[in-house]
TrEMBL record:
It holds the Pfam family StiP. It comes from Streptomyces azureus. Residues 779-858 form the PELOTA RNA-binding domain. Keywords: Glycosyltransferase, Transferase. It comes from the Bacteria. Residues 502-752 form the Cysteine protease StiP N-terminal domain. Residues 290-310 are annotated as: Disordered. SUPFAM superfamilies: PRTase-like (SSF53271). GO terms for molecular function: glycosyltransferase activity. InterPro entries: PELOTA_dom, PRTase-like, PRTase_2, PRTase_dom, StiP_N, TRSP_dom. Residues 48-235 form the Orotate phosphoribosyltransferase-like domain. CDD domains: PRTases_typeI. Gene3D superfamilies: 3.40.50.2020. This is Adenine or guanine phosphoribosyltransferase.
């Protein structure tokens, strides 16, 4: 084998023609005329490339590819065809044997899709692309610098490090070679770590100077390896003296003009966003609307500028489970086979979601996520008569000039929405505004499906101003399995589900618990209280005997449910809309078992009813003084982005669980190094003013607080006892199958859900008002508890249980002392009065009570159990 560089350029790729909207004029002429920049070489270069200006101190001009699918919307068949054909040429160059041993490496962000398409053409090789998105705990297998880029550092993060250790050919794919520095840096870094005999460098265009080409040839001889080059076209860029300074001056002048005239697309943008003439007669810029409907064009700020857009069409692609979303961590031939089988069905779902009258559609990818959107777009193009175009968003800041001789005609500016490691910043979509798209399908990975994406200044809102319909398809972000061996078992059990565990339907909730139904854990209330107060047991080590309601009490429950169902339904709507707008557009609901679980199910049902979302919902255990189940958190982190997890509870009292959760998550982050869990609890009712996310702050009867397991799926309180729950186990609970005859769990859910349609408008309006209001916790409930504790001579806030829900718990499973009721509380306290009568507990009316009622636990049984050691029953 001969060492050195071998060039291969030939006319084997179909030509794209000029870019859309070029009006027959080369899209580099504007820059060429003003800066004297020239393209020399193949006559096809002006078909493949245009020119633009960028804000970059290292290089003034930007070669804008018409066939890459990054800055210029193009037919996905053209984009994919160029990469695939280049891959075929590499396969022909290497031969079948060498091709089987090759690995293809693409460059982030612009060439991730191109590299993947080359790997498809090669057919037999696994694919990896560099990334600027680090993964905690995953050590890079390599890295390099892209010297001319605005974001220079690249990481190589293969899930299987062996991907780079073989001695077969390494195929390096970039969109263009301008100087060859990036390729040199890559080969230098990888050859030191994983030396091999052959490299193949692939690009759409090779624009290196003779001197730059000589440097690569010299380097190849130096390392004793063969380097082949394969390009669709080659040439050179002739830059006149002083071009960098002239380009910067030109950009500065346009920036100044833009600042003077204003940029309607983004208050944060300083560069102009040019507008094409409307290409489709009668098509006005409209905000997001329901499928097939048009809403009036806005004349000012977006009408829903305080929340995410409620009518966004979200498409469930049903992406194959476990299939990587791209090559960031490696993509094997087996992955490719799975994708090919799934593409037709996924594209069909896209086609079904498009407006019936759509004639021109853009599939818009997201930064490094280029390949999955490209393949979806190409499949869509093949199965429909719609004119499909494909491009992606980008980090690259480029000047937009509305001139047919300029490659970047328009620019949309929006904030980064994937919480990038290098901090927030602007992102861009080029040549989308004014291009006459009847619909835009935004395809992002789940890491990028954040509130920032859905914000009033986010990408979706920016698109909505320029197309009648915006659709969103989310591809699950692939999380590689970390290579280290944890001390705990790597596989935690899957959640328990009904009907095997609980009376809830299996899709309503997954319980991250272990089943202790066969263990006797119950003890009489007074006996438990004595054991706890003596220090002999923690409250979570046993269970109270389940209260069996009398016929009179059951009638009271049903009456209360009928009275309050609409009120509860509205509070469910308010808290769910708040979560979707502020926390995550597709949250994983995690209820605190068990009081939070009915609320979590109702929130899930609301999201289905109002938005068509199928949200995951789990129930976990949290124990006062011992924190949240850490194994449950580990399971959640393995299956979901912790940033999408929203903890749910029924109500707040004085805020003890709110504090407990915050402390537990802080300790978990230190012990496991897993970040992203938000301690902010979403609750149905927040009478204590302890949280920001709530449905109401009124203290009223929530019927699910009236009962124990028979309104909570027949599940007991959670149990944490060393002889039953090991260090690698979930906390435990019991399933009381024997109480099925009196179970009203589903009855409660159905009664509330049935009221969703009648309260929907009011709930959404109230949520919008709350989103614009100051909801900072005042902790006034805590202050009231402290005052009551002193006034009644208790001197221990843990003995004071404020609110209807907490008072009911005291009556059902503790030794109550007395109940304080707000004067004139009415029917909200009928069940409390009945329980107090049955247990011989006095009810004292208080004029200035901030809660509807407060339950006081009898001091005789609580000394030591609910004092400073934290052993209080709050769950």
């Amino acid at each position: 084998m001969n060492e050195g560089v071998h060039h291969q350029v030939r006319d084997g790729v179909r030509r794209s023609g000029t870019a859309d909207g070029a009006d027959g004029l080369w899209s580099g002429s504007w820059v060429a005329e003003r800066l004297g920049v020239e393209l020399l070489g193949d006559d096809r270069l002006t078909d493949l490339l245009g020119l633009a200006l960028r804000r970059n101190p290292k290089r003034a001009h930007l070669l804008v590819s018409n066939v890459l699918g990054k800055h210029v919307p193009q037919s996905p068949s053209v984009v994919y065809g160029y990469g695939f054909e280049l891959g075929r040429r590499v396969r022909e160059l290497l031969g079948a044997d060498e091709a089987r041993r090759a690995v293809v490496l693409g460059y982030a962000e612009t060439a991730t899709g191109l590299g993947h398409s080359v790997a498809d053409g090669l057919g037999l090789a696994p694919y990896l692309h560099s990334t600027r998105r680090p993964v905690a705990g995953l050590a890079p297998a390599g890295g390099f610098e892209e010297s001319h880029s605005h974001a220079t550092s690249h990481l190589l993060l293969p899930e299987d490090p062996a991907l780079l250790t073989g001695d077969g050919p390494l195929v390096l794919v970039d969109d263009e070679f301008s100087t060859g520095n990036t390729v040199l840096n890559t080969v230098r870094d990888l050859h030191e770590r994983y030396p091999r005999r052959r490299y193949v460098v692939v690009a759409l265009v090779d624009m290196r100077s003779a001197a730059d080409a000589g440097r690569l040839e010299e380097f190849a001889r130096e390392i004793g390896a063969r380097v082949d080059l394969v390009a669709a076209a080659s040439g050179a860029v002739r830059l006149p003296e002083g071009v960098l300074e002239k380009g910067q001056e030109l950009v500065a002048r346009y920036e100044s003009e833009s600042a003077a005239t204003g940029d309607p697309s983004s208050a944060a943008a300083s560069w102009p966003v040019a507008r094409f003439p409307a290409p489709l007669e009668g098509v006005a810029a409209r905000p997001l609307g329901a499928r097939g409907t048009a809403r009036p064009a806005p004349t000012g700020p977006h009408p829903d500028d305080n929340r995410a857009h409620p009518h966004l069409t979200r498409i469930d692609l049903r992406w194959p489970e476990g299939l990587p979303d791209g090559g960031r961590h490696g993509f094997t031939p087996a992955h490719r086979e799975r994708l090919e089988k799934a593409l037709p069905a996924m594209a069909a779902r896209l086609a079904e979601a498009l407006p019936a009258d759509a004639r021109r559609v853009l599939v818009l990818g997201f930064e490094e996520l280029m390949y999955a959107p490209l393949r979806l777009a190409r499949e869509l193009e093949q199965i429909t008569d719609v004119e499909v175009r494909y491009s992606t968003t980008t980090r690259s800041p480029v000047l937009a000039v509305d001139d047919p001789g300029y490659a970047i005609r328009t620019r949309l500016v929006f904030p980064a929405h994937d919480n990038p490691a290098d901090g927030p910043g602007e992102r861009y979509a080029y040549n989308v505004a004014g291009a006459g798209f009847d619909a835009v399908v935004a395809v992002v990975d789940s890491t990028a499906d954040t509130p920032a994406l859905h914000a009033p200044d986010g990408l979706l809102a920016r698109l909505a101003a320029h197309t009648p319909q915006v659709l969103l398809a989310v591809v699950p972000s692939y999380a590689p399995e970390l290579p280290h061996a944890p001390e705990r078992p790597s596989m935690l059990p899957e959640p328990l589900r009904g009907p095997a565990f609980s009376s809830y339907a299996p899709e309503e909730v997954g319980w991250l618990l272990q089943d202790l139904s066969d263990v006797t854990l119950e003890a009489p209330t007074e006996e438990r209280e004595e054991a706890i107060q003596s220090g002999g047991a923690h409250y979570a080590e046993s269970l109270p005997v389940e209260y069996q309601p009398t016929e009179q009490y059951q009638e009271l429950f049903h009456s209360a449910l009928e009275t309050s169902a609409a009120r509860i339904a509205q509070a469910v709507g308010v808290v769910t809309e708040t979560v979707l707008a502020e926390r995550s557009p597709r949250p994983a609901l995690v209820s605190l078992a068990r009081a939070g679980t009915p609320v979590g199910i109702l929130m899930r049902r609301w999201a289905q009813h109002r938005h068509g979302l199928d949200l995951p919902h789990y129930a976990v255990s949290i124990v006062r003084g011992r924190g949240i189940d850490a194994n449950a958190l580990r399971w959640l982190a393995e299956h979901h982005d912790p940033r999408d997890v929203v903890f749910v509870d029924g109500w707040t009292g004085k805020g003890a669980i709110t504090r407990e959760l915050a402390q537990a998550l802080e300790e978990f982050e230190k012990s496991d190094g897993i970040t992203g869990f938000d301690p902010e609890i979403a609750v149905l009712a927040d009478p204590g003013s302890c949280v920001r996310t709530y449905g109401t702050r009124e203290d009223f009867l929530i019927p699910s607080a009236c009962l124990n397991s028979t309104v909570s799926g027949l599940i007991s309180r959670t149990v944490l006892r060393a002889d039953l729950v090991g260090p690698h186990d979930f906390h435990g609970a019991k399933f009381y199958r024997e109480l099925a005859a009196t179970d009203v769990s589903v009855t409660f859910l159905d009664a509330v859900s049935a009221r969703f349609p009648e309260v929907a408008d009011a709930a959404c309006a109230q949520a919008k008002e709350l989103l614009a209001a100051d909801r900072s916790p005042t902790w006034e409930g805590w202050a009231a508890v402290e005052r009551i504790s002193e006034e009644y001579g208790i001197h221990d806030v843990n003995l004071v249980k404020p609110g209807v829900g907490e008072t009911t718990r005291v009556m059902l499973r503790r030794v109550p002392w007395k109940v304080l009721a707000r004067a004139g509380a009415g029917s909200d306290l009928d069940h409390v009065r009945l329980l107090a009568e049955q247990r011989g507990v006095p009810v004292e009316e208080v004029a200035d009570l901030p809660y509807t009622c407060v339950g006081l636990i009898h001091p005789k049984y609580t000394r030591g159990a609910t004092g400073a050691d934290g052993k209080a029953v709050t769950v």
